[in-house]
């Protein structure tokens, strides 16, 4: 049963229809949607229709078993709620297509839905995905690794830590922790956890998070704020509080009528927000707003932490294993050899000085004697891997591989790149009498 206090609090809010709201939550209807990875476009079912506000988003007529789809594990697509994909349209109308060199922060990023979207949108920029909770950060690393982007960094920091990077980012996305009423249809347990007190606590936390991170946004930079809450205190009222305390200019978007997205404005400052009601739009409850920052500067001064470079011997071994152009630079972290886009090396060194980095660049592998043991990140990456022998598996064999079960498939001895439908899934080392499965133990299919 929906909380009576929530229903009462929503009366009078633009677009709210109590009977329709209750009916859609009682219906049991579920919406399944995915967003294709444009760099790994291997998704090809027939039961899909496009999501109009995201060029790579699709609705599915039924929910397949994603766990047993090798293309899902290979990062060909991300299972993401359709309403939240509206972030793509917000960027399209505010940033446009000139994204080269832009630095973007996804502050509350786990599990990675918006970060993978940002990585696709800013394909020639730098995307920093941050998650404050350590356990959730591991999930974020996994999903960003599978997405394969060479231009992403994952950090594990409190929002206040970003004050040490004044005017660093061009875009900041804050998909804030919230009371979760927008997920009631999708997650029934969220109903039991909802309370008016939790709404107030979330609103206070949302204000604090934005106040902590806003100094790191450049003057003229874009702040995007979103929640999966219907509550006014976390949505329109929060926008007014932001305008009271910061010099922000609201961004009005053009909404196509057929999308049935509800345009609202805050009471005091008339800041624009966009509400998604599941009885109007085909998706879950969602709220999003965008601001331009009109204070601060357009750059800052930063110190760098030098990264460990490779010895001449290591450089020779790794170059022989995976020849890369000067577009990439190598560095070491412990025994691991990694590579980063050369143009982003300075940004990485700045971030490494101020933040705790969980993932940066692409991990190529470790050197053992004169050989290289490739890392799973390399298999998932968009680096040129055609020099390696590809061992193509059918779906049954691919699921066996993803379970870390033994495989008996004839192939060349040495390192083989395991693929399904041409999409890399990981590594296997073929010996004269057996195949060693190098799929990560922690990521294997268990059930």
Task: Please describe the structure with a list of short key phrases separated by commas or semicolons.
globular, Rossmann fold, 10-stranded mixed sheet, 447 residues, alpha+beta, 13 helices, 4-stranded antiparallel sheet, Nuclear Transport Factor 2, Chain: A
Structure description:
The protein is an alpha+beta fold and about 450 residues long. It folds into 3 domains: about 85-295, Rossmann fold (3-Layer(aba) Sandwich); about 300-385, Roll (Nuclear Transport Factor 2, Chain: A), CATH 3.10.450.720; about 390-445, Nuclear Transport Factor 2, Chain: A (Roll), CATH 3.10.450. It contains 13 helices and 22 strands. The strands form 4 sheets. Strands 5, 6, 7, 8, 9, 10, 11, 12, 13 and 16 form a 10-stranded mixed sheet that branches. The protein is globular, with a radius of gyration of 23 Å.
CATH topology name of the largest domain, in short, is Rossmann fold
Rg over C-alpha atoms, rounded to the nearest angstrom: 23 Å
Strands, count? 22
The named CATH superfamily of the largest domain:
Vaccinia Virus protein VP39
Number of self-contained structural domains: 3
Cα(first) to Cα(last) distance is: 32 Å
Instruction: Please summarize the sheet with the most strands.
Output: 10 strands, mixed
Instruction: Indicate the multimeric state.
Output: single chain
Identify the CATH class of the largest domain. Answer: Alpha Beta
What is the average of the pLDDT values?
95
**Which word captures the global form?**
globular
Number of helices: 13
């Amino acid at each position: 049963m929906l909380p009576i206090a929530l229903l009462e609090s929503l009366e009078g809010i633009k677009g709210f229809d109590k009977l329709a709201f209750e009916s859609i939550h009682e219906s049991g209807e579920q919406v399944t949607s995915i967003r294709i990875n444009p760099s790994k476009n291997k998704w090809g079912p027939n039961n899909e229709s496009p999501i109009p506000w995201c060029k790579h988003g699709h609705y599915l007529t039924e929910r397949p078993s994603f766990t047993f789809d090798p293309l899902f594990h290979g990062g060909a697509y991300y299972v993401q709620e359709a309403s939240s994909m509206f972030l793509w349209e917000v960027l399209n109308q505010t940033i446009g297509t000139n994204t080269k060199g832009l630095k973007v922060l996804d502050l509350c990023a786990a599990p990675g839905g918006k970060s993978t979207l940002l990585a696709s949108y800013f394909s020639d920029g730098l995307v920093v995905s941050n998650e404050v909770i350590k356990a959730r950060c591991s999930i974020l690393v996994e999903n960003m690794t599978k997405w394969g982007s060479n231009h992403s960094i994952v950090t594990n920091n409190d929002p206040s830590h970003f004050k040490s990077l004044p005017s660093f980012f061009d875009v900041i996305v804050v998909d804030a922790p919230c009371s979760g009423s927008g997920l009631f249809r999708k997650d029934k347990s969220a109903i039991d956890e909802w309370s008016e007190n939790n709404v107030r606590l979330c609103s206070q936390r949302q204000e604090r998070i934005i106040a902590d991170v806003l100094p790191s946004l450049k003057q003229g930079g874009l702040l995007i704020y979103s929640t999966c809450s219907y509550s006014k205190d976390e949505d329109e009222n929060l926008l007014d509080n932001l305008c009271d305390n910061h010099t922000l200019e609201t961004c009005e978007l053009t909404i196509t009528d057929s999308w049935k997205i509800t345009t609202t404005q805050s009471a005091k400052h008339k800041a624009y927000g966009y509400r998604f009601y599941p009885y109007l739009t085909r998706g879950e409850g969602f709220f999003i707003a965008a601001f331009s920052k009109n204070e601060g500067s357009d750059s800052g001064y930063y110190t760098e932490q030098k990264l460990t470079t490779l010895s001449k011997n290591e450089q020779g071994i790794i170059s022989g294993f995976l020849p890369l152009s000067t577009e990439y630079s190598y560095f070491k972290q412990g025994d691991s050899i990694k590579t980063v886009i050369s143009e982003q090396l300075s940004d990485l060194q700045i971030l490494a000085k101020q933040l705790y980095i969980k993932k940066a660049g692409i991990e190529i592998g470790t050197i053992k004697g004169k050989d290289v043991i490739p890392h799973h990140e390399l298999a998932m990456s968009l680096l040129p891997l055609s020099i390696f022998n590809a061992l193509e598996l059918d779906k049954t064999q691919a699921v066996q591989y993803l379970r870390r079960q033994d495989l008996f498939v004839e192939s060349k001895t040495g390192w083989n790149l395991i693929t399904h439908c041409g999409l890399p899934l990981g590594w296997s080392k073929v010996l004269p009498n057996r195949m060693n499965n190098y799929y990560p133990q922690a990521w294997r299919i268990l059930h």
